[in-house]
Amino acid sequence: MTSRGGSDVITLSAVLAEAEAVLANGSSAAPLVWPTGFPLLDHTLGGGMRAGELVLLGGPQGLGKTTFALQVLRHTVAHGGRGMLFTFEHDAQVMLERFVALETAEGVEGGGAPLRLVREAMELEDASTSLAQRLAMVPGAPEALASVARYGSRLSLHRSSSRTTTLEEIRSRVLALAGAGDPPLVVVDYLQKVCADDARDEEERVTRVAEGLKDLALEAGVPVFAIVAADLVGIEAGKRLRMQHLRGSSALAYEPDIVLLLNDKYDVVARHHLVYDSGKAERFHDYVVLSVDKNRSGRDKVDLEFLKRFEQGRFERGGEVVSEKLVDPRVYVE
């Protein structure tokens, strides 16, 4: 069904008639769904992220927020969809390296080329060799480069700046794509860096940005997937990041439809798992816990775990429900 701007007024009868017309045409009358490519997460979310939803991904620094978002984005464009990435921290060359490394691991459980090798090959100063020739000795890289070339035109990269990239800039870019009949998955990396110079303080700025991104999701009929930073309490070692630890404003709890939180598994399992099985405890360092802390369309308070493959710039897509007891200060104190 088509999206409508926030100022439009329509009767429920007209919505019903529109749904009937869409169904009669052989299409779905439900909002479009963008799968994340992580099957267990998609199952929890009822298929994936929906048109009109604001999805937040929070976590401590260095735990793979950008990595996770890029995998979701890659899944969308590799399967025929369109994506748009507003990146405040990395240039286009770095993104290309990340996507090539990601692609080497697709369909190869536990495999894939180290991101380091892809980066070294692409940074080699040798004008006599093409990119394909430079990557020829990196396992899986030639095929990965061909795959990226096939879907690359469906992924738009915006090199964003905290000084100049405003909500209106993001809105105009997204609406231009959505208006052409090709609604993109929008990724913002990250929310706290979107420019709002006239805000009095960080709380007001983050509130405006969160509200604006939610409005944009509804107006354009797309999911907006925004990475968010944690405050100082949320990044302390041994602490479990919760929604209240997202930096800047309570709007980060109220505005989004879905909130996903990353924690290092070793930091958030209950103490007895560390004390009585030290061998297994060391393996906890290899996993992140992805918690579905909020989900307006389905189940929440669900904890999933995914194996880190950071040397390849990715996570294993096949996850598990966390079986161990996790710390939660709202319930008990270890």
Q: Provide the CATH top-level class.
A: Alpha Beta
Q: In DSSP terms, counting alpha (H) and pi (I) runs of 4 or more, how many helices?
A: 13
Number of strand elements: 12
- Our estimate of the beta-strand percent is 15-25%
Radius of gyration: 21 Å
Number of domains: 1
Helix content, binned percent: 25-40%
Uncertain segments = 1-7
Order of helices and strands: HEHEEHEHHHHEHEHEHEHHHEEEE
The SS-based structural class is alpha/beta
- How many strands, what sense, and barrel or not for the largest sheet? 10 strands, mixed
Could you give the distance between the termini? 49 Å
Instruction: Give the CATH topology.
Output: Rossmann fold
In CATH, the homologous superfamily goes by the name P-loop containing nucleotide triphosphate hydrolases
Quaternary organisation: single chain
Shape: globular
Characteristics of this structure?
alpha/beta; Rossmann fold; 10-stranded mixed beta sheet; 12 strands
Would you write up a description of this structure?
With 334 residues, this protein is an alpha/beta fold. It has one domain (35-321): Rossmann fold (3-Layer(aba) Sandwich). 36% of the residues lie in helices and 18% in strands. It has 13 helices and 12 strands. Strands 3, 4, 5, 6, 7, 8, 9, 10, 11 and 12 form a 10-stranded mixed beta sheet that branches. The chain has a two-stranded antiparallel ribbon with strand order 1-2. Strand 10 and strand 11 (314-315) form a beta hairpin. Helix 4 crosses helix 5. The longest helix is centred in the middle third of the chain and has 19 residues, at 202-220. It is globular.
